[in-house]
Structures are given as C-alpha cells and as structure tokens.
Fold this sequence. Notes:
By secondary structure, chain B is an all-alpha fold. Chain B has helices at residues 6-25, 32-41, 43-57, 65-81, 87-112, 116-134, 144-151, 164-182, 184-194, 202-205, 210-236, 247-257, 269-289, 296-316, 322-326, 332-341, and strands spanning 139-140, 153-155, 161-163, 238-239. Chain B has a domain at 38-273.
Amino acid sequence: MRQRVRPFTGRQTGLPYAELVGEKMTVQKNTPLLQTQNLTKRFGSVQALSGVDFNLYPGEVHAVLGENGAGKSTLIKLITGVYRRDAGEILLEGKPIDPQSPHEAQALGISTVYQEINLVPTMSVAENIFLGRQPRRFGFIDMRAANARARALLKTYHLDIDVTRTLSTFSIAVQQIVAIARGVDMSAKILILDEPTASLDAQEVQMLFTVIRALKARGIGILLITHFLDQVYQISDRITVLRNGERVGEHLTAELPKMKLITLMLGRELLSETESSGAERAAVGDAGGAFLRTEGIARRGMLQPIDLSVARGEIVGLAGLLGSGRTETAQLIFGVARSDAGSVQVKGRKVAIGSPRQAVQHGFGMCPEDRKVEGIIADLSVRENIILAMQAKRGWLRALPARKQEEIAQQMIAALHIVTPDSSKPAGELSGGNQQKVILARWLASQPEFLILDEPTRGIDVGAHAEIIHIIKNLCAQGMALLVISSELAEVVDYSHRVVVLRDRQKLTELTGEDISEDNIMRAIAEQ
Amino acid sequence: MRSRAFPLIATFVVFVALYLIGYQRFPAFGTTRVIANFLTDKSFLGIAAVGMTFVIIAGGIDLSVGSVVAFTGVFCALAIGRLGMHPLVAFAVILLIGAAFGAIMGAVIHFYKIPAFIVTLAGMFLARGGAFVLSQESLPIEHSFYELIGDLYYVFPDRGRLTFVAVLFVVVLVVGIVIAHFTRFGRNIYAMGGSRESAANAALLLGVPIGRTTIMVYTLSAVLATLSGIVYSLYTSSGYPRAAVGLELDAIAAVVTGGTLLTGGVGFVAGTFVGVMIQGVIQTYINFDGTLNSWWTKIVIGLLLFLFIIIQKVLTSYRGTFTFRLIPGLSRRAAESKTSASPP
Amino acid sequence: MTDQRTSSTPAPPRPKSSILSSLGRLAAGNRRALFPLLALVLILLGNWLISPSFFSIRVVEGRMLGSIIDIFNRGAPTVLLAIGMTLVIATKGIDLSVGAVIAICGAVAAVLISTTDLSPYVVMLLSVGAGILCGLWNGILVAIFDIQPFIATLILMVVGRGIAQLITEGQIAVFNNPTLEFIGKGTLFGIPFAIILTAIVFVIVYLFIRRTALGLLIESVGANARASYYAGINARLITLMVYVISGICAAIAGLIITTDIKGADANNAGLWLELDAILAVVIGGTLLSGGRFYLALSVIGALIIQSIQTGIFVSGLPPTFNLIVQAVVILAILFLQSEEFRRPFVRAWNRMRKTA
C-alpha cells in the first residue's frame, strides 16, 4: 500500500502540552520539568545544534532520535554542562539554569547514564554508589553502613546482588542499573539515558525497562536516546526527532507511525511512485561468480548471522539506520573483528580473515566510517598516506622508491582531484572531503579487487560529494566489487545494483533491480 | 578466580614459600632477631613504597623517591651539622620542602598534561643534583638526638631488637591503610586510577576532584619519600648524595609484587608491605648464604616483578582476543564521542 | 607549529611575493631543525666564552685532541643510545633498559676476551648478539604480551645489572686486547674510532630505516595505531624490530664504554645513560606521544647534552651541576611542548596582534 504523506514542516507543537496529551496522562502539570528554548551550538564551521526546543515533563519517557550528526549528543552535552551553549535557554522547572559541568548538572538534579557506564569498574558496587558521598563515622568511611544502604537501595530496583563485589564482574545490565540507582539516589529529577540498551540482550532490556517504568511512576522525567525503534515504541511516551542539528518534530509516540518516524529521521518523504531509479541498472549477472560470499558470519553481541555476496563490477549497498549493524558487517568482513561463526569465500575459495592485514592480502580495501580515528594519519603527508596500504601489502623490506611514491601520489591527486598544494602537506590539514579522497586513493593505489566504503560521503561538501559518487561508479565500471554503506538513501539507490537492508543487527531483505527505491528501503526498515 | 584479592594472595603465598625455604636452610630465620631486622633494614624502602603504592593506584608513577631520600639525608646532615638546627626542626623543614616538591610535580602533571613518568624523572634529576650541589661526599651526623633515637628499641627475649625506625615503618603502614580504605581522599585515588582508561572519564563525572587528588597523591608520595630519607639518615647517621640510587625501582617492584595493578585502580598498602618483606627475605637469604653474589637479590626481584606483571596481564585481559587488543577503543561509541567532541 | 595543524580549515593562500613566501616555507620546513641546532651553537659559543681554547684542536702523536673532539668522543655512547631510543619513542614506546644492556654487553665482551681464546671479532659479535637478545626480550613483552613499554623495559632495567654482575662474578672484569681496545681507544686518520663507529652506525640505521619502508611504518604506527591497523600494517613486527635495534645500539655503546676503560664495570657502566638518551630524543623534537621522528636531530640532542656536561667541566663548576642543568633543560623543553602551557601565551600573542 503506497500513500502520499504530506510534506512535514518543522515545528508542530504550538499547542500547549495539556491539549496535546488530553486526559490520557494525569500525572503531569503544565510546566515542563526541563525545557530548552532555541538551543544553539556551533563547532567551528559545523552547526551542531540550531534553535532546538525540547520539553521533558515529569513522569514521561521522552525519546530523542536522529541519525549520526543529528545533534543528539550535543543536546545532552549542553544540558549536562559538558559544553557551553552559544545561544538559547535551559529551564529546569521553569527556572533558567547554566550548569558548568556534569557534576553541577547532577547537583541540580540531572543525572546521566552513558552507554559506556560512567562508573569505576575496579571498585565495588557499593563504593560506586556512594563514591564522593560515603557515609562517615568519626571522619572515616563507614563501609558497613555504605554496604547496607547500597543493598537496601538496590532492593528497590529488585536487584539482589553482593554489593561488595567488584562492579566489572557484573553484567552490563546490572552495571547500568547500578549507575541509574546512583544517579536517582542523588536526588535526580531528570534521568538521561544515552543508548542504555546497546549492549544488552533481550531479557536484560526488559529488566531495564521495568526499572525505567518504576522511575517514571515516581515522577522522574526520562530522556532516552536509542537506535532501536522497537524499543522506542515499547517504552517511550513522546519522541523528538533531530536532523542536522534541527528539531524536525515532536510527537506523541502513540500518534507517530513508524513509517513516518523513519521518513522524519532520514529527511525523505514517501512518494507514490518510485521514480528515483534514473540510472539504468545493468543487471549484473553471476557470470563471473561472486568475488566475495559470506555465509552466516556473525559475532555475539555484534551481528546476527549474515549472508552476503558481491560480484565483480557490482555495487552492493548496505542500508539501515544507525546501529543497524552496517558498520559491524563491514568490520567482520574486513577482519577488524573476528567472526565467531560462518564462513567467507573469496573467488569461490574458502578463506580465513582474522585481521585487516589478511584481508588486504586477499585484495580487500576498506575506507572506514570514522575518518579521523581509523582512516587518516594526520601527521603523515598526503603522499605517505596514499602509498601506505600499498606499502603495507608489499611488506616493510620492499620500500617503494621515492620517485615511484611521488608518481603514484601525483596520479591519485590528479585522478581524484585532491586539493592540496603539494603531496608533502600533512594529510590532517586537508578538508574532510579531501581527506576522504586521500583514503580512497590509499586503497586504489593498492589495487584492490574489492572495496568496502563505510559512509564515504559523510561530512564532506557538495562538490566532493558528487565527485566521490562519480569515482564509485567508475570503479564499478572498471570491474571492481564494491560494498557501500551510506545513510543517504538517495545515494544508495542511485548507484547500487543490489541493496541489503539491515535492522537490529540482522539482514532483513535484499532488494534488486526495479525494487530498489527509497520507499522500499524505508518500508523494509519499518516493517514489523 | 578473578577476584581483586588474587594478586595479594599470590604475593602472600610467595612470601610464605620463600620464608619457609629460608627457614629450612637457616633455622635462624625463625628468630625475632632476623624478623625484626627485616623491619629495620627495609624501613626506609617500606615507607617510600607506601607512597609509591598510592601513586601507582592513582595510575601514575614517581621516579623521584630515591633522589628525594638522598637529598633529605644531605640536607639533614648540613642543617644539623653546619647550621646547628635541632634535628626535629630540620625534619620539619625538610618535610615541608618535600611536600612542596611533590605538590609542584603533581601540579605540573595535572595542569600541563605531561606524563608523570617524565615529570618525576626531571624531579629525580633535580633532587639528586640538589643533593650533589649541597655536598659531594658523605657527611656524618653527630647529634645527641640521633643517639637517643638509636638507643630507642625494644629487646625481644631472644635478643631481637625492635628499633624506632621499624616501629615508624609499621605506623606509616597502618596510617597508609587507613588513608587508602577509610578516607574519601583514599577512595578518590582508587576511583581516579580505576577509570583512567574509560572513555567518559567516569571519575570526573562521579565528582572526583581530579586535580586536587593528583596533586595530593604526589605530595603524599614526596612526603613519605622525605620521611624515608629521614629514616635513612637515622639508620646510617649520615647524609650521602649517592644514597638510595635505584630505590624507586625497588619500591615499584615491592608495590607490583604486592598485588597493585600498574594500570591503576586496584591495590593494597598491606600488599606492598608483603612485597617489601619478600625483598627482605631474599636479601637475608643471600646474605646468610655467603657464597651467592648479592646481585642475585636484584635478579630474583626482577623475576618476581616479571611473574607478577604476567599475572596482572592475564587477570586484566578478560577479553583476551587479539583483534580487540591492538586497536585502542574499538567500540563505536568511543569513536563517535570523539568525533562529536571535535567535529570536522 | 601545532596550532597550524589543529586548525581544521587550511589557511587561505595569501598573495605575496613568491620569494618571500618560498623563504617562509623554507623557514617553516626547517624550523624544527633550527631550534636544536641553534641551542647547540649557543651552548658551544658559551663554552668558547668560558674557555677561549675550546675550539682549538691539537694533533698529538697522530691523535686529535681538543674539547670539540672530546664532546664527540664522550658523547658517542649517548648518541648511539639516542638513535635506538628515537625509533622506540616514535612507536609511542620507551626503552628504560639500555643502561643495563650496556652493562650486560660490556660484561659479555670483557669476560669472553679475558677467559676464552675467541677471536676479538667473534667476541664483538657475541656481545652484539647479547644486545639483540635483550632487545628481543623487551620487544616480545611489548609487542606480543602487550605490556606497557615503560613497565616491560623496567624489568630488564632492574635485572640487567644483576645479570652483568653475575657474568663478571662481581669483579670489574679487566682485559688486555689491542684489537678490542681499538673500539674505544683507537684512532683512525687521527679521529677517535668511537666517533667513526658511531657515524657508521648512524648511517647504517638511517639507510636501513629510510631505504626500507620501516621508517614510514614506524611513524604510521606511532602516529595512529588504529588507522595503521586498518591499512594492513603489521604493527607487532615493527614494534619488535625497534626494540631489537635499540638493543643493538646499546650493545655497541657498551662495547665503546667497556673498551675505553679496558674493563667492564657492571655497577656503573652506562648508569643513567637511558635518561640522557630519552632527553636527547625529546630535545631533538621527537614527541613522546609517537609519530614523526628525527634521527639526526636526536644526535644533535645528544651532542647538546654532552656539550653542557663538557661546558660545566671546562667552566670549573663541579660536574654535579650536570643533573640540575639537565633537569632544567628537560623541564623547559617539556613545558614548551605542552599545549596547555603554551595556550595562555598563544592567546596573549593573538590578542596583541588583534589590537596592533
């Protein structure tokens, strides 16, 4: 069933909250617990957050959703005093506040629990709960009292554990609840949960949700950030969607269909016809056979078993929301993480790939998602960055002669239009788009047969964007096998011969030929 | 068994085993004379090692202790001998100097983000150089107070002597244990060391005053090193600029064999005591033997150090997979938070 | 220099006369070399002011003598250690054991030459072999067992002198062998052989690092270990190799020191030289955080340290001031390298420029 959804325009909730909610919820008053007005933050040339209004009411779970770079973490960090805002107001129970540090925010009643739990793993549970505010007798810490109080406190969370044991010996879910217990015990009015379920299994998620519901009943306002849409619908009362630093909507969860939520997050509207398949899709036959074929590769806590194949001269797109397992798939294939199940075939022969080095020897290349941390070596020159993978493949003994290096670098700089005064400039001084091209050049110089591109166009300017797409298509035409990950659906639809759709770390479906369209991808993601 | 106490238990087992080996070979090991001598001979090492324990638990290192001991000795000798100060006044002055020295090192480490290893290395040069500038040769200390302290001891029935410095060592040890486990400052040190590697720097988020704690830890270590120098001067009745060379290495070895993790966050002052006693047993055994080169002490200590570092490695690498090890902070979140902190 | 690197947007090209801009680029490119070289020249000039005969070189019995020759000759062991240490530090590591390795290798050479009939050349090889073993030990602990370099090399630092003592059986092993002594005492074309040997080692290491891809890979691993891993670099092998090279350099330094005094002193040979070597590397501009390294500038750094020591010596100050002066120099350099320390000055400078 295809429908046309009316274009969605920014601010929706001019209405007072009570009207929006009706009588459904009785706990709330009219004033929000936490309010941000026109919150704005800039980092250099990047507008991280522009004019965001956000309201959190007592006793509700308010989910903040958005793709990478939408501004979720900036919003949290402004509220908790990690960053200073450029403009706007933060109101706590109607009064303006200006926390200078997370500690100050905590004192005001805003507690945050991060995914990588902000506790000390080497200390006991009780010590973690009372760190910095231990009960004392005659000036000395009374550990017995602390233990007793910690035990009693955790009982209210239905957690009956040995509080004297080291925190790191407990599961992530328990650590998560300990962190929440500490935060709430320090008089929290607001609890911010940043990706709390990212490393929990299904049962642990329910355990955590029980706790969240109990806190909700106590009138605590909970701001939830998560990638898991199913969980959003299970636990949240309201949803705010951010995109590119702007708020694109605030809705009651019950009134926001999943399909519409996805269109909001991705910034696309559903169209009645699929018209985006402008490029003729030459059906890539299996004539040459698949270059790469994976059968059920998986890793616990990272990715469900996945089957995938990529042929020469074929672009396979990996689509899905943030956290759906796209990058994880690429990492398993490239050997960054070892898969604990399944098998990989290269050109029909079974191979074992346990490290990027082995992957490179099989003719793989990968432009990772995080350019700064995993890709570019900022201190080294453009030339050195370009020849690095090629050199690693040759081994340390057979150095590329300086003239050859320069020749390759110049070739790549010309071919990819890398804007740099010369090849000896430190790569870290180039713009984002040019850095991306340098990493691309690094792999092209190593003459791979198969290239994985993880978000190749993120965070680069429009011109470079178009050029990189052009390069991708060219490489494919020259017979390279490509696996491309992108959040830009239009882009994926544009160049892919096949699209694999992921959600919740598993493969949902594979679209081919005429079926490849933004609509179909979004529908696949939204499907129950 | 992955309990926090495991390294401590291992240390204790090693100590008992070494002691029994010694006792079996030389029955004199069972007398209070030998046992009391352990305490006396190792008192200055022990006091310095207690300070080192705190620094290592906090995730740092202090290489300056041996030099501080030497400087203290020379300073005391000059202050008492040349300036005619009363030893107690000289002690007070040098303890203040030591505290300031440690506080400055801590402040440089915290505010200028220079690795502790390098800052305390410079401190080591400064203190040792200072000692040499004050005097080039050994200075004897002759003062009635020193004789008084020297005569202060308790004699056990079998003529073992519990000296003043041995008692002082035990007192420092007890105070150290109390600070480590029963004060907020002590727990903050553990929290700081235990969360140093975590992406969000938990200790900061939990409200641990990082700067103050860092400065105080290095101050504590320097004060204890100074006290150790005072004990050394009492013990030898002299001040010598070449004294206690490499003491910091022995102290680090005692701390590590005592079950404190070099990565910070886990450790026991009591374990350090056992670590110091292990060194005492080894040294006594080699002395008694007479045929063994005294350098065997260093070698055995080094081997124990190696053994315990390997034990630590096994205990802390719970993930164990090679792929995850080589690349720091593989988790996507860590990378994400890094990029959001400094957008392109 | 780093504020330029951290700014994300490249500076807009300024239309200036081409000569000026190219001169500016030249200065920027060599600024790194300029600072240590200038320091060395200033210190030498200072020495000359203290002692006007500082630069004079006499030839006595075919052997050059003079303070300058002395600096090179006495500085040779530190220079050798600094060469190895530079590579180790470039991988984000540190090698505390080199002083102990000097003692071990010196002891091996002295004991073998005085108690066996081995040819002095075989003895030299065996001594260097001992250095390789020490380097392998360190490298395996760091690269395979993944122990922090500081800790891993601390073990050998503690044990090494004990091992050397065992080899020499607690004595200062004295020997008499003209071939072996030539390393430390001989002269070639009037120049002390230790200087020539050090120069040869420098050239060999330099070629080994720069003619193979090792140098590039070391810098890559040190600058961004994770990105290097993604690029398919075998970081473990690279790390292992730098510790072995450091061990070899220490062994040769040990040979020079031992043959110079015709005896192996397990207690004092190379004592605290590891600290001089680290300092030399830091003065040369290689950062302790790894990445780019500057072999030649580390050599300059080692010469600076030796010049200070020689300067103190010729000035008549007690040599005990060495440590204090070194501490002050190391602190000054560390402060200059610390971004936190520079920040207020950079801000003040920018404010001045704005108001001007």
